[in-house]
Specification:
The structure holds two protein chains of two kinds. By secondary structure, chain A is of the alpha/beta class. Helices cover 38% and strands 29% of the residues of chain A. Chain A is built from eight helices and twelve strands. In chain A, the strands form three sheets. Chain A has a six-stranded mixed beta sheet with strand order 6-9-10-3-11-12, with helices on both faces. Chain B is mostly beta strands. Helices cover 15% and strands 48% of the residues of chain B. Chain B has a 17-stranded mixed beta sheet that branches. Classes of the chains: A alpha/beta, B mainly beta. At the A-B interface, α2, β7 and α3 of A face α2 and α3 of B. The complex binds adenosine-5'-diphosphate and magnesium ion.
């Protein structure tokens, strides 16, 4: 589904990703772990197409197509979802307006007709219920005044509504209390655990992996994957620290 | 009219005024704007007046209690003072109510001058919408006198394709009376929205604000002064300016609190959004306070669209132009949100959305 080959990328003229390779197949969950500043968020942004995060070498194919050729909104329409480490507050635009607009733009991109207001609201409420988010919050401006946990739940509600093929989730577990962590973990399993979907779970800690069992665990350090293994690698990292494992 | 009569940009209050565009519009040959007047009225059964090139058109009007008359305004304002000729008068007795008044001004080129006088008796209520369309120089003067407890809600949209619209409001707001005027500049014309509101009665409320949207090489401007002369008055000046391309939007807002006008609550919020680096937003907030027990909140900021918000929207599948339009619309939403009537607010929001669609 996703094939990253020797990817290099710069931010502000500084090389952050230094030849990163990774294959993700449909039906798999991959965890990417690594110390602060390793380039994990940069990887997510480069794959998402954020301006300023410039690929300078290598290639990325997604569902058989060149991902780096596409603009950010085309990547979303192709089925890529980026869960933000720091979801953005947008005053003046309600959650429902934003998400209906986004979903219908994606549908248009795929040649599908738009959902009506009623159909959309039903879908949004069902996803909010599944994540334990109050319906009132759907009407509020996007992420404005939401707590850290509410923002991350909102990311998962968005993911549920959009129904992507590949979710890249950047530290979705940070800032969550234990209840929210459980809700988010269950949400990821429910929405993304399917034979035709895949997840790239960027995380700093083992704890989300207790809920979302990865098939593969990779260690990202200094801009490349330095080790890969099964779920046991996450436990090893937790016990021994990045220094020992990445060395 | 001779050019010598126009205010000079050397005067501080006129330094951002685009008198060249005004002059060109005044001198332009008339042309058919191809606009059907009926399309400029919103739905509703309220009184309607159509002025074409400053001349009342009975065929498209049903003035109801609004009278048409000729006179010359008494004002020292350089443009307002020129607005003499055929105009309109709304004079309501105590406790009378007239809602949904619509005044449409359609121009085909050249200059047109229309004075208006609105006098509301005690506890009288009126709501009105004014629309400017077509081309040419539309010069208007409006005088407001609100007696105790009177309330006027007025929404004004400037939708001329080009040319210039100059508006001068002068208002005297009595005890517990309320005047709210919200403006939307969403056409291709130059503009000068100019106001002097005086709160003369205890507990009066005055509001003048709105959104100016400029593109191309267009220049729009609002210059408003609110003067508190009595105690417990409240004033609001909430303006949003959006400038694209090489355009210029300017906001000058002034609050004066006279000696003795205690417990004044004045709020001034001026914000500009630059859609391109070559665009300009000028902001000039001014406070002049001679009383000690007053609350005057004020803020003035100019910025660009938030790049993080833009990427967040795009990452969810919204293309760049639409994402910019959504964020820009959100930026002006609180200014247009001051319009109380749902249908009128929706119409103004649709005008703003059309502008964004074309500009982005
Ligand atoms: N917008 C930016 N401007 C400059 N440097 C950045 C920016 N974003 C990230 N970096 C740098 O890139 C490196 C990787 O950061 P990041 O991808 O956020 O790491 P991680 O998510 O693994 O903690 C760090 O050295 C960081 O300082
Ligand atoms: Mg990070």
């Amino acid at each position: 589904m996703l094939k990253i080959d020797n990817l290099r990328a710069e931010v502000d003229g500084k090389e952050i990703l230094k030849g990163l390779s990774l294959d993700v197949n449909a039906g798999e969950v991959h965890a990417i772990m690594g110390p602060n500043g390793a380039g994990k968020s940069t990887l997510g942004y480069v794959l998402g197409g954020r301006p300023g995060y410039e690929p300078t070498g290598g290639s990325v194919t997604f569902a058989g197509e060149d991902l780096l050729e596409k603009s950010a909104h085309e990547r979303a329409a192709a089925g890529l979802f980026l869960g933000f480490q720091y979801p953005v507050e947008i005053p003046g635009i309600s959650n429902v307006q934003f998400l209906r607009e986004a979903l219908n733009a994606q549908r248009r991109g795929r040649g599908e007709g738009p959902l009506s207001g009623g159909e959309f609201l039903k879908l949004a409420r069902a996803q909010a219920d599944a994540l334990g988010m109050d319906h009132e919050m759907l009407k509020r401006p996007v992420n404005v005044g939401f707590s850290g946990g509410e923002k991350k739940r909102n990311e998962m509600v968005q993911m549920g509504i959009i129904g992507p093929k590949l979710a890249i989730l950047d530290e979705t577990d940070s800032g969550l209390d234990i209840d929210a962590l459980k809700a988010v973990g269950e949400g990821i399993n429910r929405i993304m655990r399917a034979p035709d979907k895949a997840v790239l779970l960027i995380t700093h800690y083992q704890r989300l992996l207790d809920y979302v069992q990865p098939d593969f665990v990779h260690v990202l350090a200094e801009g490349r994957i330095v080790r890969s293994g099964g779920p046991e690698l996450a436990h090893e990292l937790e016990r021994e620290g990045y220094g020992a494992v990445a060395a | 009219m001779t050019i010598l009569e126009l205010p000079s940009p050397r005067l501080e209050e006129w330094r951002w005024a685009d008198m060249a565009t005004l002059k060109a519009a005044a001198d332009a040959e008339p042309r058919d704007a191809g606009i059907r007047p009926a399309d400029l009225f919103l739905d509703g059964d309220g009184p309607r007046l159509l002025f074409v090139d400053g001349v009342f058109e009975p065929a498209h009007s049903r003035p109801g209690p609004v009278k048409v008359a000729r006179w010359a305004p008494e004002t020292v304002h350089p443009l307002g003072g020129m607005a003499e000729g055929e105009g309109w008068v709304l004079s309501l007795e105590a406790e009378a109510a007239v809602t949904g008044i619509q005044i449409v001004h359609l121009g085909s080129g050249g200059e047109s001058h229309v004075p208006a006088r609105i006098a509301l008796g005690e506890d009288a209520v009126a709501t009105m919408v004014e629309t400017y369309a077509g081309t040419g120089w539309a010069n208007r003067f409006a005088r407001f006198d609100l007696a105790r407890g009177a309330r006027l809600m007025r929404s004004v949209r400037l939708l001329q394709a080009d040319g210039f619209v100059s508006l001068r409001d002068e208002a005297v707001i009595g005890e517990a009376a309320s005047l709210v005027s919200i403006f939307l500049g969403a056409g291709g014309m130059g503009s000068r929205i100019d106001g002097a509101l005086t709160l003369t009665g205890k507990g009066a409320f005055a509001e003048m604000g709105g959104a100016l949207l400029t593109s191309g090489t267009q220049k729009q401007e609002a210059a408003v002064a609110v003067r508190h002369e009595a105690i417990e008055g409240t004033s609001r000046q909430l303006w949003r300016a959006v400038a694209a391309n090489r355009s210029v939007a300017s906001l000058a807002a002034r609050v004066e609190v006279a000696r003795g006008a205690q417990q004044t609550d004045g709020e001034q919020s001026l914000r500009g959004l630059l859609l391109e680096r070559a665009a300009t937003v000028n902001l000039k907030p001014e406070l002049e306070i001679f009383a000690d027990d007053v609350k005057c909140a004020h803020g003035a900021t100019v910025g660009e669209l938030d790049a993080r918000a833009l990427f967040y929207l795009q990452s969810r599948g919204i293309d760049e132009a639409r994402a910019k339009a959504l964020l820009t619309h959100a930026f002006v939403a609180d200014a247009l949100g001051r319009i109380g009537d749902d249908a009128v607010r929706a119409a103004f929001e649709a005008d703003a959305a059309r502008w964004l669609e074309a500009a982005l």
